[in-house]
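Handoff note, outgoing to incoming analyst
You'll be picking up this chain. Sequence as last confirmed:
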Amino acid sequence: MAGFIYKISPRGAWAQAEAAGRFDGAPVDLADGFIHFSTANQVRETAARHFSGQADLVLAAIRVEALDPLALRWEPSRGGALFPHLYAPLPMSAVAFVRDLPLGPDGTHQFGEIA
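Most recent structure output, in case you need it:
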């Protein structure tokens, strides 16, 4: 469905995942049994809803084609929109880039250009 999906993460948790070579998920992911991702059209609202005012975050872009197609499911969530959920650990080899997700002067996250 998309070339890239996105994960917002606290910098420290992402650094641990990079050291381990895989991301097993944030506490909410572990509780739900899958890793939550967003598309480019969804990620800004995800940040506003779930990370409002949080600093020291990173945005990771994940190559969809690098994921196990049996483990990646597009499931209805917010307002019935399909969101990508990964039912497996995220291998770091699938990550296209990671960059800072700073807060702007108005307190919202500054994404810049995303695909």
